[in-house]
Design goal:
By secondary structure, this protein is of the alpha/beta class. The chain has 8 helices and 9 strands.
Length: about 270
């Protein structure tokens, strides 16, 4: 049996709901073998992050080379990376190994609105990492940070920002509207050929920890299985919607709990 392989390059969430742990759960739930490169360790649970321990850039390089030199990686998902030296190590590895699909989830703004990365790191992401990606998946505040613009307030503005993000060198952008209001949760897939509006019913649940990580890793999993970009994004959105809807079946922690990655498998 030959199984598709996807690699996640991201931080570890000791609470298990986001980061590397969410990515590997998503890969497994969608029938993909998951490998990992850890960029940071966090002391974290459903209530928040109490500590971060960065992994040295040289060891990030060692992990990347160990995986790529042995495993037939079909797709890569990159999560939060905040250190310029680590970003440089990841960029060098992507140029060296040339994976067919790279999905970058640029986690830069906390739910509180606080910036999670320095302006220097944002510039390195713009200049060096985004041109190596095949899809980036910012939410609306993160799209604004990447462009150094106000957050979009209309669908026309969102589409226009998506087109400007393409100018950073990535062929596809998925702007996520999950933080917006309304009965629908709408995302916009922007490519050179136009904009695809993807809507789903908004799920009322406090269990949203790891939502962005899960969506981007689901896209990577579907790309690893051979889907084209739009089909992969649509399937991943269906998956995260179902995982959110089933999240209340889990009782994990006392804060914002995780989505239910194995909703289709655990009965």
């Amino acid at each position: 049996m030959t199984i598709p392989i996807a690699l996640t390059i991201a931080g570890s969430d000791s609470g298990g709901g986001a980061g590397i742990q969410a990515d590997l759960k998503t890969f497994s739930a969608l029938g993909v073998y998951g490998a990992s490169v850890i960029t940071a360790l966090t002391a974290q649970n459903t209530r928040g992050v109490s500590g971060i321990h960065a992994v040295p850039a040289a060891f990030v390089t060692a992990q990347c080379d160990a995986v790529f030199s042995d495993l037939a990686v079909a797709a890569v998902k990159i999560g939060m990376v905040a250190e310029p030296s680590v970003i440089a190590a990841i960029v060098a590895a992507l140029k060296r190994w040339r994976p067919a699909h790279v999905v970058f989830d640029p986690v830069m703004v906390a739910t509180s609105g606080d910036r999670l990365v320095t302006p220097e790191a944002v510039e390195v992401l713009r200049r060096d990492l985004i041109p190596q990606a095949h899809l980036i998946t910012p939410n609306m505040p993160e799209a604004a940070v990447l462009l150094d613009e106000p957050v979009a307030t209309s669908e026309a503005d969102i589409a226009a920002q998506g087109q400007r993000l393409l100018g950073l060198g990535c062929p596809a952008v998925l702007i996520k509207g999950g933080h917006a209001a309304g009965v629908e949760s709408v995302d916009w897939l922007v490519r050179g050929e136009g904009v695809v509006r993807l809507a789903a019913p908004r799920i009322a649940t406090p269990n949203t920890h790891g939502t962005g990580c899960t969506l981007s890793s689901a896209i990577a999993a579907r790309l690893a299985q051979g889907d084209d970009m739009e089909r992969a994004v649509r399937a991943a959105k269906d998956y995260i919607s179902a995982a959110l809807e089933a999240s209340d079946r889990l009782h994990v922690g006392h804060g914002h709990g995780p989505v239910h990655h194995f909703h289709a498998l655990w009965r």
